[in-house]
Amino acid sequence: MRIFSGIQPSGDIHIGNYLGAIKQWVALQNKVYPVRGGISNKADCIFCIVDWHAITVPYNQTMLQRKIKEVAAIYLAAGLSPEKNIIFVQSQVKEHAELAWLLNTITPLGDLQRMTQFKEKAAKQANVEAGLFNYPVLMAADILLYQTDIVPVGEDQKQHVELTREIARRFNTRFGKTELSSGEVFSLPKAQTLKIGAKIMSLTAPDKKMSKSDKNPQASITLFDSPEQIKKKISSATTDSGHEIKFQPKEKPGISNLLTIYSLFSDKSIKDLEKAFLGKSYQEFKASLSEILIEKLKPFRNKKAELDKSPESIEKILADGALRAQKIAQATMQKVRTSMGLL
Ligand code: AQP
């Protein structure tokens, strides 16, 4: 069983990225899966910092370098072990670009035109470059290069993983089982999303996803926000008319989003939280949520401060991760080149 996922080093990583993606990864690094003959195996987990994706919209180069290391620090601070997982930077394994080019040649234009994220991001740009349009093909290459079975992601990335599966199926049909290839070239990956928490909403506009690229800093809580920032953002988070603390996403999107965040950080069920806050005000609920967030995000602030003192240790982990990732990537590329009739 192989697991692959990644995050773009764009903007500040927020609690939506953590709850929807990274928190799942931390649990998966220890999970064992049954294999044939009653034997169980731990999955191979590969977590990438997808820097080539972050340059598909305008960015600042100095900031990008800082953000790449910051995302690595977040992975470690969240509890991902560099021994149990491969942690690396996408641009340090050139096979991602090679496979993306080759997959471009079998990806229909219409499939890319349908991608929701492309439409949303393109609408925000004055100039749209080809890189943004081809983003899903690079993401397909990221996933297929490692013969991935499971891609743990948030709701917004499900469409890209489904396209990846389609590209893999198309490739296998066209180039697998020929005189040049003895069988399927790629495993077919599946997205894995949480039942609750796959789409954490903006604090200021709870009908929109919490997003790194949101221009309003009050819309999200980042993993390194100070206690004061957390209190301020939560106390000014949009709630709904009425006063009941109830999970009703359609009627009460604001309070339902805050209940989801509370539940995931406290490991208490939403039902138990509704009972605990019965008759209490929004203000009391928000004060308690702020306390939980301050406590749960403290280890991130502390670990980050510790890692900032030893940047070489992060560089070493990333260099080692790139070497390990490249071995797997090279084996896949050998199969891909041969099956496509390249030398
Ligand atoms: N609001 C969210 N709730 C739950 N999960 C989320 N993810 C993103 N937003 C939420 C998941 O986090 C992972 C990292 O995603 P990414 O860096 O590839 O970018 P994204 O999906 O486009 O996330 P953002 O935060 O909206 O970033 P920008 O604004 O830079 O595009 C993915 O697994 C994603 O599903």
Bound molecules: adenosine-5'-tetraphosphate
Low-confidence stretches: none
| Main structural class | mainly alpha
Strand content: 5-15%
Order of helices and strands: EHEEEHHEHHHHEHEHHHHH
Strand order of the largest sheet: 1-4-5
Helix content: 40-55%
CATH classification, class level of the largest domain: Alpha Beta
CATH architecture of the largest domain: 3-Layer(aba) Sandwich
Question: What does the average pLDDT come to?
Answer: 95
Number of domains: 2
Largest sheet: 3 strands, parallel
Oligomeric organization of the protein chains:
single chain
Report, as a whole number of angstroms, the end-to-end distance: 30 Å
CATH superfamily of the largest domain: HUPs
Describe the structure.
This protein has helices spanning 15-28, 51-54, 61-78, 95-104, 109-113, 116-124, 130-144, 158-175, 227-235, 253-266, 270-276, 282-308, 311-340, and strands at residues 2-7, 32-34, 40-42, 44-49, 85-89, 150-152, 190-192. With 343 residues, the chain is mainly α. The protein folds into two domains: 2-197 and 311-340, Rossmann fold (3-Layer(aba) Sandwich), CATH 3.40.50.620; 217-306, Tyrosyl-Transfer RNA Synthetase, CATH 1.10.240. It is globular. The structure holds adenosine-5'-tetraphosphate (AQP). Residues 7-8, 10-11, 16-17, 19-21, 153-154, 156-157, 198-200, 209-213 line the site of adenosine-5'-tetraphosphate. Adenosine-5'-tetraphosphate is lined by residues 7-8, 10-11, 16-17, 19-21, 153-154, 156-157, 198-200, 209-213.
